[in-house]
Amino acid sequence: MQCFVRAGVALLFVFIPIQFAADLSATQHSIWIAKPDSEAFERNENRQLSQAQQLIEKLLAVHSPRTIENTLRPYDDAIRYLNSANYLASLVQSVHPDSAFRHRATAMVDKVSAAQTALSLKQSVYTALKSLEASSADSATKYYLHRQLLEFHLAGVDKSEAERARLRELNSRLTSQQSAFERNVSDGRNTITATAAELAGVPADYLEHHKPAANGLIEISTDYPDYFPVMKFARSTDVRRRLSLAFSTRAYPKNRDVLRQLMESRYGIAQIIGYPSWADYNAADKMARNGARIAEFIQQIDDASRPVAKRELALLLAEKRKSEPNAAEVYDFEGSYLTELVRRSSYDFDSQSVRPYFAYNRVKQGILDTAARVFHLSFKREEGAPAWDQSVETWDAFEDGKMIGRFYLDMHPRKGKFTHAEMMPVLDGVLDIQLPEAALICNFAKPTADDPGLMEYSDVVTFFHEFGHLVHWMVSGRQQWTGISGISMEGDFVEAPSQMLEEWMRSPQVLAGFAKNYRTGEPIPAELVAHMNRASAFNRGNDVMRQNYFSAVSYDIYKTKPQDVDLSAVWDTDERHYTFFVPIDGEQGYAAFGHLSGYSSAYYTYMWDKVIAEDFFGQFDAANLLSGDTSMRYRRQVLQPGGSESANDLVRTFLGRPQNIEAFKRWLSEEFAGVSAQIR
Question: Residue 371 belongs to what domain range?
Fold first, then answer.
């Protein structure tokens, strides 16, 4: 995440500003939180834009020799205000319950983005920073300045006035197009109907929350809590096929044209800056560095996963042939269902058997306790704190009794809310100025007095993954500069720390601390965890191939001229090439693939970081993940530095060498390397 938004590059996270300046107790809320009306919101936004502009004017008014204090300091303070304005507008756009408020926030996103773009193209500011004498500065300051000058260059600051004017125009369009694409995904909601008989196989508590209408039909939406249990457990092939098609078309056809506009705007930006494609341009400040390296990596992952996935496919197809003897292929909508059947028949594990141990409130407390123990932190809820919705919880993070940040948990679906799971930073943490804040936005089933909100194991993993981003944001938020605070290193490193933490949710030691039967209070049996882990190792090859397929789509639509891309053909062709599953007619999944807006060509990040994550995890004692010195060494060497040095250096420092793919290959093949001997 850059200090300002480089031309057309969406931040990977979104945020809200709550408290500023000297009050580091974090007990005061901004007027927007205390009184969430749109006029107060806009006043707050405009105030921050005005303060940023005043700081830039102060920087440019300097006539004495340029120093860190008279030039970089006001520049960084301006970035802090611009970031805060962007975070707030983006968050309101994503989560506010009122649609009119969300639309006003979208307009403010455009306004803030225009201010950020204007700064990134302001030659006088670039010249001032470039003229700084920083030879005696500390290494973090030198690295920050180096990165800022690179980002200015990639924004087009050294282009002609006509070219910069065109870049401003393209960035303005791109901001609006991104907002439209993401809102269409959030607002898109399709439904199908089915009888209770057609939903045979789904959990009993699911049916309790989906009562038939007067006509006997049950409505099922494409919201996550509705969608995934049906795709995993419903025996009816027809129901799963229809729901899968509804899910893949929920933002179609609206986003077909919006995505093409996004592609054209991005290609235009890349061309002006001097890159042959958006994929090459977008990789220039990342670990990958160029599009060719992305393509090479996608092929590397394909080579590693294909042999494993082929063996898994044979088991899936054999399972399918129990009911369809002549079956010769597996459709994409069948993957989750058949995987579940194989785990039952071949691995003696039924996913529903662990759900009683994963009641939402127990999981939440367990994740808080686990993160606190691993990273030597503590968390305390601030009861009654106002937020954008009454369901949102406010929590404070402490280290050795001293508050180090605040976070918000917005964990359940509602109409118009962002539909995926994401950590959305709220405030940049800056030493002696403000504490870091962030929001966790998820869509898990909401517990009630009559329902504990039982979670899938995969939901528990997702929860801890996203909470890992929160911890990263908190512990890296004591930097001297806004621009190196938080998760501000190269964008293709940001998922690695949280992906590594997913391994904690496989530990019997960790799960025994909170996974307790909601009826009896008994902890989850170690034998059941062992069965779960053996079963979860099955189908990793196909899961990785699916992620790699998304990476290929992300890269392929941005690697060339937009007019040369047939979106439906890329979606279909890449699925057939990079997975063993067969798509069904009518899928338009690219229209609802939100990462094509934010990550754009960089979806490869997830697999890139999974490789690093498994390499990291190899440094820990897997038999005892809750103690030992490694977690604090990891925190100090990987998390706390934020963006004060290159991600490549963070990796080398912790591993003692550059990352490699060997640990990932071992993880990928685990089901066929010793584990298979334990399969029935």
Answer: 355-537+605-678
What is the Cα–Cα distance from 250 to 185, expressed in whole angstroms? Answer: 7
Task: With H, G, I as helix, E, B as strand and everything else as coil, classify residue 360.
Answer: helix
The single-letter code of the amino acid at 431 is L
Q: Are residues 200 and 178 in the same domain?
A: no
Q: CB-based contacts of 541: which residues, under 8 Å, 6+ apart?
A: 305, 306, 307, 308, 309, 310, 311, 312, 668
Structure tokens that stand for 438 in this block:
């962030």
**DSSP-based three-state secondary structure for 507:** coil
The Cα–Cα gap between 103 and 179 comes to 10
Structural domain count of the chain: 3
Cα 651 to Cα 638: distance, rounded to the nearest angstrom: 7
Predicted pLDDT at 25: 34
- Residue 190 CA to its chain's centroid (Å): 23
pTM of the predicted structure, to 2 decimals: 0.90
Q: Is the pLDDT of residue 333 over 60?
A: yes
Question: What is the rounded average pLDDT for all residues in the chain?
Answer: 92
Q: Where are the alpha helices (DSSP H) in 420-517?
A: 457-475, 496-501, 508-512
Please state, in angstroms and rounded to a whole number, the distance separating the CA atoms of residues 259 and 553. 13
Residue 225: enclosing H or E segment and its boundaries? helix 224-233
User: How confident is residue 162, by pLDDT bands cut at 50, 70 and 90?
Assistant: very high
Helix (H, G, I), strand (E, B) or coil at 529: helix
Domain boundary among 170, 186, 202: 186
**Residue 323 phi, psi dihedral angles, 5° rounding:** -110, -20
In this prediction, residue 38 has a pLDDT band, given cuts at 50, 70 and 90, of: confident
* Domain identity same for 123 and 220: no
Q: In whole angstroms, how far apart are CA 308 and each of 302, 341, 575, 610?
A: 10, 19, 17, 17
pLDDT in tens, 167-211: 999 999 999 999 999 999 989 999 999 999 999 999 999 999 999
Q: Is 509 domain-assigned?
A: yes
CB 472 within 8 A of CB 647: no
Question: What is the CB-side half-sphere exposure of residue 91 using CA atoms within 13 A?
Answer: 31
For the chain, what is the total number of helices (H) and then of strands (E)? 25, 7
Q: Residues 165-199, buried b or exposed e (16+ Cβ, 10 A)?
A: ebbbebbbbbbbbbbbbbbbbbbbebebebeeebb
Is there a domain that residue 389 lies in?
yes
